[in-house]
Amino acid sequence: MNIGDKIKEQRLKKELTQEQLSDLLNVSRSTVSSWEVGRNYPDLETIVAISDLFGISLDNLLREDTEMAKDLSKKVRWNNYYKRILIVVGALVLIYVGFNGKMRMDEQRYLKNLTAHSWKQDDDRFSGSYALKEEGVLYATYIIETGFNPVPLKESHPWVIARKDKLVVEVKNGNKRYVIISSENDPKVTYNATVEVDESGNLLKSDPKWSAKKEQSLKDYLKKYQKEYVELLKRTVGKRQEIIG
């Protein structure tokens, strides 16, 4: 006997109409009818309610109905699956909210420090950019606006570019130092490249794509202006630290 037959049997024993049973279970009469003819099955919560209403165990109610058991097992598996999805989605939302909150606080701190150190917004270039000219050096930075932004947190920290005459340097997250060697800044430059250097202005890493001639040319250029680069990078690190606070 399937569960639909058992529901009908117990309903008749209680002398209830389909309408009356549907009222007791808070479902429609057509739902009760579809159970009894085997078109579909009650959900787990309703099965428990039926068990309590008729005073029979879940084991007796479900016994012999293999299709119902399969359907119920499938629903339980899907419920567990959806619960896992909800947990993952909830965790991602919490991570995003925390990340976004951190970015918002960082942004406000950066903007406050920029104002305190006389940086001016440079809207002529693009929104979010700021500039400062001091002792013959032009500094520039960019503050990422808070919002839905897929940029990793470490990349949201401001970089600072500094230009003095034909020399250009950049300081990024972690105070990584870069020298920008370009013929646009110095017509005498043979090879263009942005190279990472140490505190003493020495080349840290070579690009495998460079020829030996290009690498030597870049090293020679760094050596030629080493003193100037070291001083400019030192100032730029200081300016970046003022922004970060």
Automatic annotation (TrEMBL):
- CDD domains, per the entry: HTH_XRE
Looking up SMART domains in the UniProt record yields:
HTH_XRE
Domain (HTH cro/C1-type) spans 7-61
- Name the UniProt key words of this record, in alphabetical order: DNA-binding, Membrane, Transmembrane, Transmembrane helix
Q: Which GO terms describe its molecular function?
A: DNA binding
Question: What domain of life does the native source organism fall in?
Answer: Bacteria
Residue stretches spanning the membrane? 81-99
Q: Which PANTHER family does the entry link to?
A: DNA-BIDING PHAGE PROTEIN (PTHR46558:SF4), TRACRIPTIONAL REGULATORY PROTEIN-RELATED-RELATED (PTHR46558)
Name of the protein in its database record: Transcriptional regulator
